[in-house]
Specification:
Number of strands: 2
Helix content: 40-55%
Strand content: 5-15%
Number of helices: 7
Radius of gyration: 15 Å
Largest sheet: 2 strands, antiparallel
Structural class: mainly alpha
Order of helices and strands: HEHEHHHHH
Strand order of the largest sheet: 1-2
Shape: globular
Number of domains: 1
Length: about 150
């Protein structure tokens, strides 16, 4: 699978050594932070001054959910730094808000998917980049993607 033409405009976060995986995380993180900016932190409701102040926080954490949930647009949501680092009892608030935003049963469905295994090869991450790029719409301008 070929890299998309806009691949070079995605700024790395340097969270992962693999460049394609890192850019998949970068576009996902930017997407959820822009998407959730006006809604505020999914755990405590705090509204930041800019979308860049939010962090991409996982409902089912990466260690349990594997790569499939680590790069899922419903499992990763905007959180303030305090909540994302476990500063409060997140579980109940995050679950309630997930179901409110995306429909009853969303949190439980994500939790059930934690057992799904996925082949996390280069093609998986390219597909994720393309999926998220397609969701960005006008927000491409906000995060400086062409």
């Amino acid at each position: 699978m070929e890299l998309p033409h806009y691949f070079g405009s995605i700024k790395r976060k340097y969270r992962y050594k693999d460049k394609v995986k890192d850019k998949a995380w970068a576009i996902l993180s930017d997407y959820v932070r822009v998407r959730d900016f006006k809604k505020g932190c999914i755990s405590c409701g705090k509204r930041p001054e800019t979308w860049r102040e939010l962090q991409g926080g996982h409902y089912v954490n990466a260690g349990i959910g594997g790569v499939e949930l680590s790069f899922d647009v419903l499992n990763v949501n905007g959180q303030c730094g305090y909540c994302n680092m476990g500063g409060m009892d997140l579980g109940a608030n995050y679950k309630t808000e997930l179901d409110r935003r995306y429909g009853e049963g969303t949190a439980d469905a994500l939790h059930q998917r934690r057992f799904k295994t996925t082949n996390a090869d280069k093609d998986f991450f390219i597909r994720k980049i393309e999926e998220i790029y397609g969701l960005l719409g006008e927000d491409k301008k906000e995060i400086n993607l062409k």
